[in-house]
Amino acid sequence: MKKIDIKLKDVNAVYDGPEGVLWELIMGEQIHVGGFKSSMILAEKAGIKAGMKGVDLCSALGAGCRFLVQNFSVEMCGVDGTDTMINKALERADEAGLGDKIEFKKGDVTDIPYEDNTFDFVWGEDAWCYVDDKSKLIEEAVRVVKPGGIIAFTDWIEGPAGLSDDEATRINTFMKFPYMESLEGYKKLFNNNGLNVIETEDLTEEFAGYIDFYIKMLTDQLSFDALKIIGNNMQMFQAMGGEMMNMAERAHEGKFGRGRFIAKK
User: Fold this and answer.
1) How confident is residue 131, by pLDDT bands cut at 50, 70 and 90?
2) Domain hosting residue 76, numbered range
3) Is residue 2 in a domain?
4) Element (H, E) at 125
């Protein structure tokens, strides 16, 4: 575990500002690797069924909640710590005609604003890497899910080859991650909280290809749009490109990756 001093306020600054808009441009409204396809795989593997009630932790623009309501006929709640994300999530749910089926609350996912045993499942997609205290996050997820309930999420992780301290610091600083957990690290957190591990899957090889894809989009198609978002600051654009190239290299080395996790209370 290689931690740096990144707090919720630092993550808020990203998603309250132009960087958040830039990530939506690159990755789409869901702001996670693989979009709809990845969400469908996670939901099907987790056994999400009509009539269930779930909570999306770090729900961002609310696209995960809308995806689940529209495709699996569930009831959803979303928790996020950023004002801009909560406000946009509420607006977009209303625009989609789903305002009465989804509740959003501003809150810290290490202190979830819901009672014990409220949900049939806890959901997350590529966002728990922003959380400083992942042990408390998992503890809280276990608290709010019902006995027999499911915790299902994907996340950006330290890859199987492992990052050096300098490599981890560079990626975490750019991405505003306090640290990235590993596949084995998440398994340990599950065991510490009495969860039954259903699946942990390393998606690092696939992840590396997605980073290449995002870089190609930015350089071959979306340069004008990205520059507009960051005030036509070419120096910043080039610097961000350099950091993304670094992430791609580390991913192809198996040092920086992504995982899919499903566990049962």
Assistant:
1) very high
2) 8-264
3) no
4) strand 119-125
